[in-house]
Amino acid sequence: MKISKVFLYDEPSVPEINITELGKFIKKNFCVEVEIREQFFSFFKESTRKIAYELATSRIFNPLAPFEKRTPTSEEIILEENSITNFTNTSNIVMYDGFEFRQIVANTIPETESQPDKFHLICSDKLTCTYDYEDYRYHGRAVICSNPAIISTTGIIEAPAKPREYYLGMFENMIQGNLDMMKNQFKGKYLEYHDVKLSEIIKGYAMQALFYYLTGQPFCESKNCRLYNAHWQDDLLHSQLTVGKLCNDHQKILDEITKNCE
Ligand SMILES: [Zn+2]
């Protein structure tokens, strides 16, 4: 086993993560010691101002162009500082470049904890995005696989698309002005903010992040596996809730990884 310890960071503005349960899940499945910590940037709070500045520079202002660093305004820096110190949850969704964000996280981890056998898994409500050169635009990502790895709770909700009918219905109902009716019609077919289902779904993303680090392969082709890279909310709910386990092949790989575990 390549990892001796997992450091798991909470996102207090999203209590539905249920960090204690997630920690137990990782410990049980990967047979590894797990240390639960508070929100990443408040755990390493000695450099809050610097981090706030860096986070503000990692924001995306044009989703149709590759990342370009720009000097943040003092307002943007204060906003970031507040998100670290008060866990203020604004309803505005801010997009961050996932690789820049990951780099800020990596730079914050002290050298004593940066060894390859220590795996850092950060839960964040910030929407991490990556630029796709195939369609020349940014896309939201639920998970940034690396060490440190980032799971974006906003990404889980926003990145896999809602049913096609939802978007069609949204358009029709917007004209007719009955959005609430439509929301009821699709209730349960996609994740909402502060959805209790998040605690179960986030376990699948934690598995993807760990599989990536342990095997280089985070995803599975099968929808009947928690490593399935869902592009649609229905597929996400299917693989993480209806199925809720690894396929046989991936279970075997995991058994092999953890076989000498006591
Ligand atoms: Zn699989």
Biggest beta sheet summary: 5 strands, mixed
The 3D shape can be described as globular
Q: Percentage of helical residues?
A: 40-55%
Number of strands: 8
Q: Give the structural class.
A: alpha/beta
Separation of the first and last Cα atoms = 12 Å
Query: Could you tell me the radius of gyration in angstroms?
Result: 19 Å
The set of bound ligands, ions and cofactors reads: zinc ion
**CATH H-level superfamily:** Collagenase (Catalytic Domain)
Determine the number of helices (DSSP H or I, runs of at least 4 residues). Answer: 11
Mean pLDDT: 91
Strand content: 5-15%
What is the domain tally?
1
CATH class: Alpha Beta
SSE string, helices as H and strands as E: EHEHHHEHEEEEEHHHHHH
CATH architecture: 3-Layer(aba) Sandwich
List keywords for this structure.
binds zinc ion, Collagenase (Catalytic Domain), alpha/beta, five-stranded mixed sheet, three-stranded mixed sheet, 11 helices, 262 residues, single chain
What does this structure look like?
The model has no long low-confidence stretch (mean pLDDT 91). The chain is α/β, with parallel strands linked by helices and 262 residues long. The protein starts with a strand and ends in a 5-residue tail after the last helix. It has a single domain (5-257), classed as Collagenase (Catalytic Domain). Strand 7 (143-144) and strand 8 form a beta hairpin. It contains 11 helices and 8 strands. Helix 1 packs parallel to helix 9 and helix 9 (198-215) crosses helix 10. It has helices at 19-30, 40-43, 48-57, 74-85, 98-108, 153-158, 164-176, 179-185, 198-215, 233-243, 248-257, and strands spanning 5-9, 33-37, 95-97, 118-124, 127-132, 137-141, 143-144, 149-152. It binds zinc ion. Zinc ion binds at residues 220, 222, 225, 227, 246-247, 249-250.
